[in-house]
Design brief:
The complex is a heterodimer of chains A (389) and B (160).
Chain A: H1 3-9, H2 49-56, H3 76-80, H4 106-117, H5 134-138, H6 141-145, E1 167-174, E2 187-197, E3 206-209, E4 223-232, E5 251-252, H7 254-260, E6 266-275, H8 279-287, H9 317-323, H10 327-341, H11 357-363, H12 366-373
Antiparallel strand pairs in A: 1-2, 1-4, 2-3, 2-5, 4-6
Chain B: H1 2-11, H2 18-22, E1 38-39, E2 46-47, H3 50-55, E3 56-58, E4 64-67, H4 80-85, E5 89-91, H5 94-103, H6 106-109, H7 150-156
Antiparallel strand pairs in B: 1-2, 3-4, 4-5
Classes of the chains: A alpha+beta (389), B alpha+beta (160).
């Protein structure tokens, strides 16, 4: 406000002796959506541009949560659930488990809660659900109790169903054990006994495939072994399937097998377990005249940045230059080093990486010393005894 | 003669001169005669900066390397990663390399070869295709002293 305006507006009686300092109203300095150009001082045209920018801002409506009237009564689980195709139960009726379930009243709950707080709560074994084996599996009870128990034929008992005749066929397959996936598609059959009479022992059936212990190869992790029991009223003719000693002949496509005998077979029970590699697998494979294969994870080679003639950031010179050297050249260097150390009759790997560690630690440049001690990468070949393998 | 050459190659970076190791030598304590290019009064020739020769090594491809600065300071209070990376010998930047080249005599810019040299593998660089001659026709990296057209040189002289 100028002095003249002040004089015009305020009568002399109320005027201050000096012109009061009056600021113009503050306008916002930062409006992110308007950009800095909204505040360029331009006294000649569009003086209220900064204000216009605010007016022109597009109105945004927040996303509303839309409630479908038809889904209103459904729970969130039902809404999110994917539509599932109806499963056909092709097996027998599941027997009712005789686990006692005690109804608890509100008073019982209060009492139980009090007991639990005072550490007096005792759990009755009778009221526990017996076939809940997850706790045993969690603590590896079975693994440690019955280690290597798959080398011998498992003791399987089949429950008798009714008094009528009929036959059972037991199939034990390793779902993850097909080592001949390129030649044959299917699962690895460990054991196949057909035509076991109702209520009879396993031995009474025809042993189509002799029992062979599961062979999860080294590095392939856990294998799922499934025991499937089929029931059929007439005897099954398994002429097409022959149980030779050959491992490759043990591969059977179970779904195809079932499809072929769909009219006769009804799956009636299934159990499964998991196994992983141990020493017995190697022993068994050697016994059968195979070599025990080793599976390792193949990592991708490490990414490397483009080489700069002079890297901006200081780099460890040996590692940086090694990264762009020809790997063959590095291997040749390592081989030369190795051939220098070994004699004609003595191809043993050195017992110690560096016998003069303390001396060398002081004397050698650190990059050279660490290269000397390095076992990884191409230097691994210095210590691996290739000739002995 | 070879023995001496080998020793200088291996220990020039690791060994600190006895005189210098006794006193703390920060950036402020560098004596004035060391941050100039000095010339010999008798012959008028350039004298190499002895400090550069003590602390740095020049690979034959023109790259200077040096130990990590302050690697011996307060090691006990620094972390494991630093304990490891501080031992690396680091590369210099282009500007540093140019400066260091000027601080030493042409003798030290000549390619050096020693028997059983652990640095031998790093004397050439692979896979660099930038021009090896600058705009004034001077060699910017070591190479065979034949000036060829680009296609021939990239075909036969990849390493430099």
């Amino acid at each position: 406000m100028s002095a003249a305006q002040y004089a015009r507006l305020v009568p002399r009686k109320y005027r201050h002796r000096t012109l009061p300092k009056m600021d113009r109203p503050i306008r916002p300095r930062v409006i992110s959506w308007a950009g800095p150009s909204a505040f360029y001082p331009n006294r000649f045209y569009e003086i209220d541009k900064w204000y216009k920018a605010r007016i022109d801002k597009p109105e945004t409506i927040p996303d509303m949560h839309i409630i479908e009237p038809t889904d209103y009564t459904k729970s969130i689980r039902e809404i999110l659930e994917k539509p599932q195709t109806e499963l056909i139960n092709i097996g027998f009726k599941k027997p009712e488990l005789s686990a006692k379930k005690i109804e608890k009243t509100e008073e019982d709950r209060v009492e139980l809660e009090r007991k639990s707080r005072h550490m007096e709560l005792l759990i009755s074994i009778d009221n526990l659900e017996i076939p809940n084996l997850s706790i045993y599996k969690h603590f590896n009870i079975f693994d440690d109790l019955f280690a290597q128990n798959l080398t011998e034929k498992p003791d399987i008992k089949i429950e008798k169903i009714g008094n009528s005749g009929g036959f059972n066929t037991l199939l034990m397959v390793n779902i993850d054990g097909n080592g001949f996936l390129e030649q044959k598609n299917g699962e690895f059959v460990q054991y196949l006994v057909a035509n076991i009479e109702n209520g009879g022992e396993i031995g009474t059936g025809d042993e189509v495939f002799e029992y062979l212990q599961p062979l999860p190869f080294y590095g392939t992790g856990f294998h799922r072994i499934a025991f499937v029991l089929f029931r059929h009223s007439e005897k099954l003719d398994l002429a097409g399937i022959s149980g030779a000693a050959n491992l490759e002949s043990r591969i059977l496509n179970v779904s195809e097998f079932y499809k072929k005998n769909e009219r006769v077979l009804t799956p009636s029970a299934i159990r499964f377990c998991q196994t992983k590699y141990d020493e017995s697998v190697k022993r068994k494979l050697h016994e059968l005249g195979y070599k025990s294969p080793l599976y390792n994870y193949e990592y991708l080679p490490a990414l490397k940045p483009d080489q700069k003639e002079y890297p901006k950031k200081p780099q460890p010179f040996d590692l940086y230059l090694d990264m762009y050297r020809d790997p063959k050249e590095i291997e040749a260097e390592v081989l030369e080093k190795r051939l220098n150390t070994i004699g004609l009759n003595d191809v043993e790997a050195p017992k110690w990486l560096d016998t003069d560690y303390n001396e060398n630690k002081k004397k050698l440049p650190s990059w050279l010393h660490s290269k000397m001690l390095d076992r990884s990468g191409p230097n691994r070949k210095l210590y691996e005894n290739i000739e002995k393998k | 003669m070879f023995k001496i050459g080998l020793q200088t190659a291996q220990t020039s970076l690791t060994r600190t001169p006895a005189v210098l190791s006794s006193s703390a030598r920060g950036i402020a304590n560098i004596p004035a005669h060391e941050y100039h290019i000095r010339f010999d009064q008798q012959s008028g020739r350039k004298r190499p900066a002895q400090d550069v020769l003590d602390r740095f090594k020049r690979l034959n491809n023109g790259m200077w390397i040096h130990a990590h600065a302050g690697k011996n300071k307060l090691r006990y209070m620094k972390d494991d990663k630093w304990q490891k990376t501080s031992l690396y010998y680091e590369t210099c930047t282009k500007e540093q390399c140019q400066m260091l080249d000027k601080l030493v005599t042409p003798f030290w810019l000549r390619p050096k070869h020693y028997p059983n040299d652990p640095y031998q593998a790093y004397n050439v660089r692979h896979g660099i295709d930038s021009p090896r001659v600058d705009d004034k026709g001077r060699f910017v990296r070591e190479r065979r002293k034949v000036l060829l057209d680009d296609s021939t040189s990239s075909r036969y002289f990849n390493d430099c």
